[in-house]
# Entry
Amino acid sequence: MIAAGWLRRIFYVIEDHKSAFLTALLLGLLSNAFISLANPLALKYLFDEGIIRKNFGLFTALSVAFVAIFTLWRLGVLSYRLFVQRVKNKILVSWSLKMLRRYYNIPYSEIITRDNGYFLSRVYDEISTTVLPVVDCALGLFNSIISFTVALGVVLFLSWRATLVLICVIPIVYRLSRRFGAKIKKESKLEKEEEAKLRGILGRALGSYKVTKTFNLYDGIYAKTSAQAGRFIDVLYARFKTSTIYQSLGGMFMSYAETAVMIAAGYEILAGRMTFGGFMGFMNAFWLVIGASKDMFERIPEMSRIVGAIERLVELQELEARQTNFSYGDEVKLEDVSFAYNDHKVLRNFNLKTKRGEKVLIVGPNGSGKSTLAHLMAGFLC
# Structure
């Protein structure tokens, strides 16, 4: 299930900053719960007690009091947003250093199969496009959930009959999210991989300036870059198409629900079961429910994309070097060492023993294994 996997990934990302994140989460929940409850009930009380009863003095006093309260709330929101940004900055720096440490733990045999551009994309670019959206999406989703819950309670309190229409459409949109979420997650992982490969190719192209101009290699570089760019654009478009179809279908069903609820609310006030102030409060809470619902359902594609991106961070960790029989000492000793790059055998049953302070000269033609031997002795290859 997407939601369960997404929650696990959230705690994976914030594991070193749980206290700060949970503090930000709690502040956001309290803020959204307050505005979702206070705003519609304030409107109801303002109109029923001030306008309907023709008490202009009370109406003015209540208006000034509500403005003062909501001004304090907005100042609180400002402080909250600044605090969230500080938390995001700390998490970003922490993850950048963590991924750099992981990079140095990747076996050299994996490093040489890709270029620096590929790992730069994995170590930095994917961090900035994954870690920060995780925090934003998590806080935004939980804030929308609390807004939806509180506002839904208000509309049920003001008119449960009109609210039933809205509740009926929620299972439909939920089924859509289940159907499209898994596909978006898969496409997002593939998109990140193809983007990293494209960055790697561009990195090699930029690093071969003199060679390219000297040997007129433009056509080959352009062709290879164009082919990889095409693959990246294809998977990018596929993910965008899936996300857009889901958002369009979800938006259509929510529009149907909006129209039906507005008709039902109008009928309630004409039937005398809802006051004018109650209608104003109901519509205010109703639009909060609609806004929160749209935000939650529109975050499904983003949630799926984020889960796929975080899994790539986990995959990089899985590349880290495992324990080998390599150890440090006062001498270099290789016994019956063989090594191959894929099917190309470079060393076969090679033996070498040299003590600290000895000088050894190793000679041989290109491709005979000199660099490979040096990498083996340094522990880069195993």
Observations:
- The chain has a mean pLDDT of 82.
- The domain at 2-318 is CATH 1.20.1560.10 (ABC transporter transmembrane region fold).
- The radius of gyration is 30 Å.
